[in-house]
């Protein structure tokens, strides 16, 4: 069976250095709307110092969705996911809106 491929309609920023991964979306005042952050490598996130909820999509090395956290609120954390290699942080509600489910393949326009 062929897996569903989702192409994200957002500008995706890459966080692939220690500092970019550490900072992530912390301290931003306004919620993200038409953008996302792809954190590589990353298999868990924290929402410390965040001011708005986000959707968190964990991907394996083939960009297949292995776990989703819908509308993760500030001051929460996720448990590490062994199969995850990277994490997409997207606007709250967008995973459901875009039909992103476990098993989907994500394509990002970077």
UniProtKB/TrEMBL annotation:
Residues annotated as transmembrane: none
UniProt xrefs under PANTHER family: UPF0127 PROTEIN MJ1496 (PTHR37953:SF1)
Signal peptide: none
Family matches, as Gene3D superfamilies: Protein of unknown function DUF192
Designated name of the protein: DUF192 domain-containing protein
């Amino acid at each position: 069976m062929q897996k569903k491929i989702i192409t994200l309609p957002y500008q995706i920023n890459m966080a692939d250095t220690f500092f970019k991964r550490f900072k992530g979306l912390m301290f931003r005042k306004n919620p993200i709307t038409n953008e996302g952050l792809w954190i590589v490598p990353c298999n868990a996130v924290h929402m410390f110092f965040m001011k708005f909820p986000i959707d968190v999509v964990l991907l394996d090395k083939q960009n297949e969705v292995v776990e989703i956290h819908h509308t993760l609120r500030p001051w929460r954390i996720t448990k590490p996911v062994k199969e995850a290699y990277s994490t997409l942080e997207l606007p709250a509600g967008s995973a459901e809106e875009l039909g992103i489910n476990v098993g989907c393949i994500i394509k990002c326009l970077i």
